């Protein structure tokens, strides 16, 4: 396609999505849930042909010399197919939130006023490599009564096309419009530029991928964007604190997996427990090869830990999202200094306090300005599944609209409903 | 001030607002409510000096040849001062929503997950003429634990300065930072450009005023904007319907006041009741000098009404927000056509159905894609006070974040709180 054709093509997708959105918003919950269960069935039935289409992407990736972890993220195994199928069934089993009316109360004039939860309309999703995201996004879109336009990475185009065909088949079998879930069929980059600049057809954009991609999209989008750029998450070990628990949680928060955005990147330790806590967590990190970027005070305490990889932290380290076996470490006076450090250097994603002190816990919860704030838990829990949202379409570090892990509620808005008996304004 | 000085000045206001916002978010409800009650007291005590400052604006406006309605909107009377003072007291008496935790539920991992309502941070408000908006915005900001930067119209600068002094006095007396409410003291237009482009200091912009102003701000703002451009509201008279009620409500919705954004601009009438309803509402509108822009079918019915001002409607009429004694009138087949017309030509502000049919009412509520959807009530009720929000900072026709009349809830966001007992992710 040339640029003009891409623009026309995207306008067509947009118009079709807008029309499908109106039908999805009016559809009943039973049809939407039926589409999800049909989709689960089709995924299982078509697991082999899906893997054959996926193999073409994998071969192309191997030929292009993609790194093994990248190829791994592309792969549709029987296990990943079963997982997304189960995800669809779980969503189908969840209570419906579309049309839910809350807070309906009579006002002095006699009118009753409440709020009804309704779909946002059309969302555009831009993502890379993992083809299972296609099913996750499609199923959340169907459950929430929206329409969506999905733009996956070019490396997964064959897999995504095959998955999108199954989604549309399930929609049609359930009596819903196929255009409620559309995959952008061209890998032309111009398509992204078009998708993010059609406010008449697309209500919100959800980009998932590298920071560069998300920054570009946020800058150029002409509609709201649900996004997070960084996950510079902190774990603060307070005084007083259960040190065994703190070691276990600080270990998990950093080392359970290094790449997720909710992994802890900064460890803050109250002065009163530093001498007891730091050598113990230092030994754990040393055993796992985690490098510690330390302020002078923590470095002094950690100096005695055998095999510890201790480096002096620079100012930049406090801002860093390492996504690697590296962590910044700092001794602070108290919870007040910890909160100030987090609000200054953090990315407003997820931060935890480990404490026995109720007042400190309450202050931390109230004053840390992050999407998720935790007491005595691993930052790794910041996730739509773990929060009981059924699934997660993305994570937002913005404060406007949805914040933190975004599930089906984040794909809806609340409109006002007024029920009267002929009241007039005087 | 020159442009450079204005930029520096606005950056200073921004930094001060950001710092004040952190203190406001941490302040207790008692202090915030005390500030509101102190402000009410100061407004009453200082009513005379306020009117003296206001008189300087009024003189300048008269000398500049401003139209009488404009001068009227500028005027601070004992009554408007008492009204805003009472508004502050009403807000102080309302339940506090900052820090409210909802939906706290245990998840399978053992962690308990819920959401805490917290202030957005800093909002910037841009408005024209009516100086009482200064107090409304300041009081909503204080109640919701935010900081704000207010930019009023140059014609009201003396009044606004005097009001802002009282607000800051009340804040300080309550132990809160004066910078929690700052008025832009320069009338330089460059200040607006700066205010809407400081994402590091300002989280959201709320413009109130003419459509041109709001369009410009929305286009140039680098932060989210809470706004509505048009109020092309509809009243649909369904079949079956209580005709007496329909005449009363359709009259009120159009004629109770012509200028508000929630006044009805389009009247849709089901074919089955057109012959009975139209002559009656036509006579009411004729008596009040309301011009009717009609489709052929309604024009034919209205032809027999004495003194009726009937014109043929053009396609453009269906889009029009008249804000005047003019209304578009169209006969439709049924509720389905009414919904399609409203979703196509309306501005997603406020639309009402007048009906006895329960199924039609439910369908209208569900499918009309507007911020407020009403059954058997005047569209004029779309208002923060009437909805029980205490006050209204603005009205949004967007679907993202707050929708419809925006009160203190719209100035807050929900962050996730996680309460654990040392849980780790496996």
Automatic annotation (TrEMBL), chains A, B:
NADP keyword on record: yes
Family: Belongs to the gamma-glutamyl phosphate reductase family.
Domain of life: Bacteria
Alphabetic keyword roster: Amino-acid biosynthesis, Cytoplasm, NADP, Oxidoreductase, Proline biosynthesis
Annotated catalysed reactions: L-glutamate 5-semialdehyde + phosphate + NADP(+) = L-glutamyl 5-phosphate + NADPH + H(+)
Oxidoreductase as UniProt keyword: yes
Single Gene Ontology BP annotation: L-proline biosynthetic process
Pfam families named among the record's database cross-references: Aldedh (PF00171)
Pathway it works in: Amino-acid biosynthesis; L-proline biosynthesis; L-glutamate 5-semialdehyde from L-glutamate: step 2/2
Coiled coil feature spans: none
InterPro entries, sorted: Ald_DH/histidinol_DH (IPR016161), Ald_DH_C (IPR016163), Ald_DH_N (IPR016162), Aldehyde_DH_dom (IPR015590), G-glutamylP_reductase_CS (IPR020593), Glu-5-SA_DH (IPR012134), GPR_dom (IPR000965)
EC number of this enzyme: 1.2.1.41
CDD domains, alphabetized: ALDH_F18-19_ProA-GPR
Role summary: Catalyzes the NADPH-dependent reduction of L-glutamate 5-phosphate into L-glutamate 5-semialdehyde and phosphate. The product spontaneously undergoes cyclization to form 1-pyrroline-5-carboxylate.
Top-level enzyme category: oxidoreductase
Species in which this protein is naturally found: Ramlibacter lithotrophicus
Gene giving rise to this polypeptide: proA
Any one GO CC term of the record: cytoplasm
Molecular-function annotations in GO: glutamate-5-semialdehyde dehydrogenase activity; NADP binding
Protein name (Swiss-Prot/TrEMBL): Gamma-glutamyl phosphate reductase
Annotated compartments: Cytoplasm
Aldehyde dehydrogenase domain: residues covered: 16-285, 319-383
SUPFAM superfamilies with a match to the protein in the record: ALDH-like (SSF53720)
Family matches, as NCBIfam families: PRK00197.1, proA
